[in-house]
Write a structure and sequence with these properties.
By secondary structure, the chain is mainly α. It has one helix at residues 3-73. The chain has one helix and no strands.
Length: 75
Amino acid sequence: MTMNARLESIIESIGGAQDLLYLALAAALLLIALRFIRRAVAPVGAVIEAAAAAAVVALAAGMALVLVVAAAISR
């Protein structure tokens, strides 16, 4: 094996190690992102719950108004 072939072999193995390192770092960063996504979504969950509560209140108030009007008309 010539010196040039050895150098090429070493460079190729380093390139493979860099690819593996990049994949390992990407996996670690994705795990960190998934772990912290709950904190990022938690405020949105509160907004969705508030919107759902407002929709229930609007539905109940609307139905109550319809029943009052129906009672008034039926007399």
